[in-house]
Design a protein that fits this description.
Layout: H1 7-33, E1 68-72, H2 74-85, E2 93-102, E3 106-114, E4 117-124, H3 128-132, E5 142-151, H4 157-160, H5 165-168, H6 179-183, E6 189-204, E7 212-225, E8 236-239, E9 242-245, E10 251-258, E11 261-269, H7 272-280
Antiparallel strand pairs: 1-2, 1-9, 2-5, 3-4, 3-11, 5-6, 6-7, 8-10, 10-11
Length: 285
């Protein structure tokens, strides 16, 4: 066993710890003197005059609101879709899109393109001269809604499978009309008639006059799977509109694309000069 430390050993340990503390204190004082560490008591020191205070974050200016505006109403679109699916509106609706506009008379139409094939629903109104007849001095500012609805299919399955009838009729044949030859010729997709309904509503905006309410029902041929829902209901979707639009421009309110197909809802505000010209024109016979 080692003998207990003597008093001289304890003194040496005490001196070593004291020296270590003195070195730490000297290092801290050196950092303070060099400006690396700032020590303050009580209230914090004000920033030096040559140091600029950080500027507050810039607030983004709200979008400019012009006379001609179109906005998509997500809540109203969902409500119309739910009511249509439940049969509350009389006919079944698969999906609906509701837009609110203001500023002037608006014309809308829907275009569907499948390769070189182009189908159009509308426009509404179709004849501005007839629509504006007898509205002299009624003002050109109007506000209203544009509603596009894709209706539920009302066609029997036999219409969807009509492309298969010639092929199935040759199952018992031989050579190039044999079942193995027909298998590769059977179409994977089916072409169905999709019914769309377009509604354009216009009411006067503080200057009197009459409004209009137009409904157009039409069909487009839509490709889709042989079984299941229509493919265009789950298509990629892009919404348009804005708070500061111009008259006379072609606007894209809704654009949907799937499998090389494109469906677009377009609109155009009628300029005031064109409104007055059409009102002054003699009525069509």
């Amino acid at each position: 066993m080692q003998p207990p430390p003597t008093s001289s050993t304890g003194q040496r340990l005490h001196l070593a710890l004291t020296a270590l503390l003195l070195l730490a204190a000297a290092g801290a004082l050196g950092l303070v003197a060099a400006g690396q560490v700032r020590v303050s008591w009580g209230e914090p020191e004000p920033a030096p005059a040559n140091e600029e205070a950080p500027s507050p974050p810039e607030k983004k200016a709200p979008p400019k609101k012009g006379r001609y505006r179109v906005e998509y109403l997500a809540g109203a679109s969902e409500a119309v879709t739910e009511a249509g699916e439940a049969g509350f509106l009389g006919g079944g609706i698969e999906k609906a899109w509701v837009f609110r506009y203001s500023g002037g008379y608006l014309q809308a139409q829907a275009d569907f393109r499948m390769g070189e094939f182009l189908a159009t629903i509308g426009p509404a109104p179709g004849n501005w001269q007839r629509t504006l007849a007898g509205q002299k001095g009624a003002g050109a500012e109007r506000r209203g809604f544009v509603i596009l609805a894709a209706l539920q299919s009302r066609y029997p399955p036999s219409q969807v499978a009509q492309f298969y009838f010639p092929h199935l009729g040759g199952i018992c044949a031989s050579l190039t009309a044999s079942p193995l030859q027909l298998l590769c010729a059977l179409p994977v997709d089916a072409f169905r008639l999709r019914e769309y309904r377009l509604l354009v509503v216009a009411t006067p905006e503080g200057k009197g006059g009459t409004g209009l309410r137009l409904v157009i029902d039409d069909h487009v041929i839509v490709p889709g799977p042989l079984l299941g829902d229509y493919a265009e209901l789950s298509a990629a979707e892009r919404l348009g509109g804005g708070p500061d639009l111009g008259p006379g421009q072609d606007l894209i309110l809704l654009e949907r694309s799937w499998g090389g197909n494109r469906f677009a809802l377009q609109a155009r505000f009628l300029p005031d000069a064109e409104v007055e010209r059409l009102r002054a024109a003699p009525p069509e016979k």
